[in-house]
């Protein structure tokens, strides 16, 4: 810097040149000193260059050969690389397919099960698919589609199983009468078996209760798996003959749709929904079943079909109660039964009141007893039904009374009111066998002879016995004590005697144109019927085994009935006589102004006395037991005579005191006196 800044630039350059020359001389000296070595090195380098060129050529040649040889290897290695890549891909694919194929197989199996309506297995398959298989392959798109479809499939299974249940409910609604009919046949067979066992105690060890008999048929149905693939419905069963063994009522029903649907809804967590639906639908069906047809009272088949449907309904519910856990419970069954009991009893009260045929009422009673026994065999309380049967018993008695009223009328109307003639011993014994009559005097008499009574006595007596038998028939199987049966029969028989028979007798006695002979015969007949009352008492005692001395035993009022009828007949005799006297008196034609009397009594009075004489002759010629009938007829004749005389004297006095008679002559009074003397004579 000082050089450039000062004036000594040229001088500096000279000094620098001189310094360069000195260094060049030193370099030259040094080079001269090492020159030989340099030359040797160059010479060596030249030699090396030649060798290097050879080496280069060899390397180039070797490289060329190597490149030529390596091309094939590279191609093979590239192919190997591709194969190894494919192998890895195939292996990975196999691994993935190994995971996916079970999923697809399960899904295919699921669709097949859905198609063949095997819904419960389909639901199990769906669970395995969802919880076991799909999580392993969840990243695949087809699996996501499956996952999205699972709720839809569940809903489809629910809907289809519910559809099967609806078909089942509809089917058992239609076939409940067939189920009930079979159950009632079972009960009838069991009752027959019980009767046989009670008659032959030796074989009672083999006796089964109703519940055991029904349980045997339940076992088969209980074993029905929910996996069952049968459609809902009632199995076809042909009608069996009475002698053949009746299949179990539950054997007629395939319950698998209920079990399947219950399991499906339980698995899906909707059991409560299913239970509520089932109970609601069955309640509706119960109301339909309990609605009686309007013409049910017309035939026994109407009642039988009504009972069959009710029994069928409760047989199904009882089976569901015992073969499912909680689908229905005892409280629900009891509630339905209470409703059914009240509606059934109300319907029976209404419809039975229309029935006027006692045989139909009796058949209805037997049907109700069988209905009650059947349901009692399944554990349902039926006391109210038996209480209602006691009400129907009153109605039965009324229908019997109406029927026997017609029977008595026919007997009384067709009777000839004359003593029964017998021509031989056979006829005599036949009548004595029909009516309790003993008369030593009559037995001694030779044939032909006559019973004192007419035909209506044995006929009425036998019809009273038939009535008692009819009452007894109703009391069978009602679980009544012998005292209650005896009381029921006696009360009904009293109504028959005091009301029905009494009215019929009164109508005969009061009817127009009844003859005096008929009235006298009625008096005789009622006397014999009155005596037969003690035999009726014995008859009732024999069939009920309740002694008349037992406390609260009702007495028969037949004696009173026949006494009243006899008194009415006597009164009718007196009335008829007086009416006849009045008819004769109407013929009286006195000439109150006659100057001279006639030579004899008036013609009308002679005819009247002749009539009375022939009339009282009837009383003196009564057949049969002389002691009884002469006393009885004598009393009636005396009373009739007193009544006739009193009425005649009063009427004659009235003739004299009539307001139309303004004056009397002595001749007229003398004629009247002749008539009075004729009466006295």
Layout of secondary structure:
Blueprint lengths: L1 H4 L3 H107 L3 H15 L7 H59 L10 H13 L10 E2 L18 E2 L1 H12 L3 H19 L10 H24 L6 H23 L5 H20 L5 H32 L6 E2 L2 H10 L5 H5 L4 E2 L5 H20 L6 H29 L5 H16 L1 H12 L13 H28 L17 H18 L5 H32 L8 H15 L1
Antiparallel strand pairs: 1-2, 3-4
Helix pairs in contact: 2-3, 3-4, 4-6, 4-8, 4-10, 6-7, 8-9, 8-10, 9-11, 10-11, 11-14, 11-15, 14-15, 15-18, 16-18, 18-19, 18-20
Family: Belongs to the SEC15 family.
Keywords: Coiled coil, Exocytosis, Transport
InterPro entries: EXOC6/Sec15, EXOC6/Sec15_C, EXOC6/Sec15_C_dom1, EXOC6_Sec15_N, EXOC6PINT-1/Sec15/Tip20_C_dom2
Overall description:
With 681 residues, the chain is mostly helical. 75% of the residues lie in helices and 1% in strands. The chain contains 21 helices and 4 strands. The chain has helices at residues 2-5, 9-115, 119-133, 141-199, 210-222, 256-267, 271-289, 300-323, 330-352, 358-377, 383-414, 425-434, 440-444, 456-475, 482-510, 516-531, 533-544, 558-585, 603-620, 626-657, 666-680; strands at 233-234, 253-254, 421-422, 449-450. The strands form 2 sheets. The protein has a two-stranded antiparallel sheet with strand order 1-2. Strands 3-4 form a two-stranded antiparallel ribbon. α3 (119-133) runs antiparallel to α4. The longest helix has 107 residues, at 9-115. The protein starts with a helix and ends with a helix. Residues 202-244 and 623-630 have low confidence and may be disordered.
């Amino acid at each position: 810097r000082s050089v450039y800044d000062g004036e000594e630039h040229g001088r500096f350059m000279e000094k620098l040149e001189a310094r360069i020359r000195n260094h060049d001389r030193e370099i030259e000296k040094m080079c001269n000193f090492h020159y030989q070595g340099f030359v040797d090195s160059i010479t060596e380098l030249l030699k090396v260059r030649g060798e290097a060129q050879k080496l280069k050529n060899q390397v180039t040649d070797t490289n060329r050969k190597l490149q030529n040889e390596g091309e094939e290897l590279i191609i093979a290695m590239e192919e190997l690389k591709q194969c190894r890549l494919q192998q890895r891909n195939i292996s990975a694919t196999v691994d993935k397919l190994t995971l996916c194929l079970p999923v697809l197989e399960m899904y295919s199996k699921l669709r097949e099960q859905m198609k063949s309506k095997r819904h419960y297995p389909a639901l199990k398959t769906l669970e395995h698919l969802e919880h076991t298989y799909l999580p392993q392959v969840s990243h695949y798109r087809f699996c996501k589609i499956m996952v999205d479809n699972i709720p839809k499939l569940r809903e489809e299974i629910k809907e289809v199983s519910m559809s099967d249940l609806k078909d089942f409910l509809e089917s058992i609604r239609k076939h409940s009468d067939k189920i009930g009919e079979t159950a009632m046949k079972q009960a009838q067979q069991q009752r027959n078996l019980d009767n046989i066992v009670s008659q032959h105690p030796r074989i009672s060890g083999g006796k089964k209760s109703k519940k055991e008999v029904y349980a045997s048929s339940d076992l088969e149905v209980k074993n029905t798996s929910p996996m069952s693939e049968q459609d809902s419905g009632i199995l076809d069963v042909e009608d069996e003959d009475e002698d053949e063994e009746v299949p179990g009522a539950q054997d007629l029903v395939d319950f698998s749709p209920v079990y399947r649907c219950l399991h499906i809804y339980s698995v899906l967590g909707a059991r409560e929904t299913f239970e509520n639906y089932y109970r609601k639908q069955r309640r509706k069906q119960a109301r339909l079943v309990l609605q009686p047809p309007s013409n049910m009272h017309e035939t026994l088949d109407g009642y039988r079909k009504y009972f069959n449907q009710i029994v069928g309904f409760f047989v199904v519910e009882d089976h569901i109660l015992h073969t499912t856990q909680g689908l229905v419970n005892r409280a629900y069954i009891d509630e339905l039964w209470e409703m059914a009991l009240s509606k059934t009893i109300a319907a029976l009260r209404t419809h039975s009141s229309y029935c006027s045929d006692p045989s139909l009422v009796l058949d209805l009673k037997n049907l109700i007893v069988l209905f009650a026994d059947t349901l009692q065999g399944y554990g349902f309380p039926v006391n109210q039904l038996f209480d209602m049967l006691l009400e129907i018993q009153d109605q039965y008695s009324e229908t019997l009374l109406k029927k026997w009223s017609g029977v008595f009328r026919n007997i009384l109307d067709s009777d000839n009111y004359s003593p029964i003639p017998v021509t031989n011993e056979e006829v005599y014994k036949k009548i004595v066998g029909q009516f309790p009559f003993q008369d030593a005097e009559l037995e001694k008499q030779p044939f032909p002879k006559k019973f004192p009574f007419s035909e209506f006595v044995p006929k009425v007596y036998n019809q009273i016995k038939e009535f008692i038998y009819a009452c007894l028939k109703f009391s069978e199987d009602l679980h009544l004590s012998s005292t209650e049966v005896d009381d029921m029969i006696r009360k009904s028989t009293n109504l028959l005697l005091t009301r029905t028979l009494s009215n019929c007798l009164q109508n005969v006695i009061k009817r127009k144109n009844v003859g005096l002979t008929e009235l006298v015969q009625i008096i005789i007949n009622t006397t014999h019927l009155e005596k037969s009352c003690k035999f009726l008492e014995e008859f009732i005692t024999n069939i009920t085994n309740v002694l008349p001395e037992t406390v609260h035993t009702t007495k028969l009022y037949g004696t009173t009935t026949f006494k009243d009828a006899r008194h009415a007949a006597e009164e009718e005799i007196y009335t008829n006589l007086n009416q006849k006297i009045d008819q004769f008196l109407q013929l009286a034609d006195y000439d109150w102004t006659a100057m001279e009397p006639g030579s004899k009594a008036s013609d009308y009075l002679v005819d009247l006395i002749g009539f009375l004489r022939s009339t009282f002759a009837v009383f003196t010629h009564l057949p049969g037991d002389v002691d009884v009938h002469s006393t009885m007829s004598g009393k009636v004749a005396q009373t009739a005579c007193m009544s006739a005389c009193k009425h005649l004297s009063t009427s004659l006095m009235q003739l004299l005191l009539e307001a139309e008679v303004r004056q009397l002559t002595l001749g007229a009074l003398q004629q009247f006196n002749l008539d009075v003397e004729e009466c006295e004579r």
